[in-house]
Amino acid sequence: MIISHRNAKFILQLPFILFAVLAVMIMSCQRVMDETIPKNAVSAHSPRPSGMNKNNVARDLKFQNAAVTPLTNIHYTGLYCEECHEKPAVRGGDLYLRYGGDYSLLCRCHTLTSDVYIHPVDITPTVEKRKRMPPDFPLENGKLTCLTCHDIYRQCQKRLFERNSLRGAPYPQRVSFCYNCHAKANYQPDDPHQQLNSKNEIIIGTCLICHKEKPDEKHATFKDVTFIGDIEMICRRCHHIAGNHSGNHDHMKDIPSPAGLKRIKLVEAKFHTRLPLNENGKMTCITCHNPHEKGVLPANSPGAKGAGSKYRHRLPKNLCKECHQM
């Protein structure tokens, strides 16, 4: 049942974690693949170190309002201005920002979970990118900050149904925003879920988007399959799942309880399916979602269950109900 990563080459290194004298944690960047990005850039791809989660770092943050925690959404309410501003900001004038305007501290709740953010900051864009960038995408001392992509003033407004702070939003797709600066022809990815050609033959190159080597789809077990990196991080390259997922619970945070593991086994046996866990025994994206195109795995294989279904659920329509005995 446990997926093996024994030979997997992890895409990312563990981040460096520094604690400022005021006990405010700043997450620093690790190496990213674009060699034009300096080593001290804050990376959006740094995973949390093993054993660390939002709860046991929350106490290291300081807030002006005693009721605010790292899990409080202070945006779009207009109630928590003092968390970022020393006094009311003047639109087009002095913002009176705390921490000297250091966005790594102003946006400290987000740097705690930077693995869900896909772009580094504190880097100087290339000349080519600066030519493509819209004029209202501001830089600070020639470098990217959170403010470059996000209209933070928009987040200060009490507009409960307008929660996209990306400049120029809304966009038809999330990645459409990226093409404001990045050339679409260079960055538009292939669909990793389109795994068969017109002759229903497996496209090996597509397999290698996620796998270290093409698995034997007819005989390989989950223990035989290797990945190029952490499964959740592989999925997050394209899929942005923020907050608790799903059912307002972070399913990928904890190892299932003994009762939960027993229930997983029962569901697998009852529906002739697989609900694989990662190498640490935790649920991950592919526990509930089948990433394969229908026809890649033999139809009678438990691992083929749910391929091609809506949302790629391994047990369409009743997965939550069966696991939680609802």
Task: Supply the helix-strand structural class.
Answer: mainly alpha
Q: Regions with pLDDT < 50 over 5+ consecutive residues?
A: 1-59
Count of DSSP H/I helices: 12
How much helix is in the residues?
Answer: 10-25%
Question: Could you please describe the fold and organization of this structure?
Answer:
The protein is an all-alpha fold and 326 residues long. The protein has a domain at 204-324. The chain has twelve helices and two strands; from the N terminus they run E-E-H-H-H-H-H-H-H-H-H-H-H-H. The protein has helices at residues 54-58, 103-106, 108-111, 127-132, 146-149, 152-155, 184-187, 204-207, 231-236, 258-271, 285-288, 319-324; strands at residues 17-19, 25-27. The protein has a two-stranded antiparallel ribbon. The longest helix is centred in the last third of the chain and has 14 residues, at 258-271. The two termini are 24 Å apart. The model is unreliable at 1-59 (pLDDT under 50).
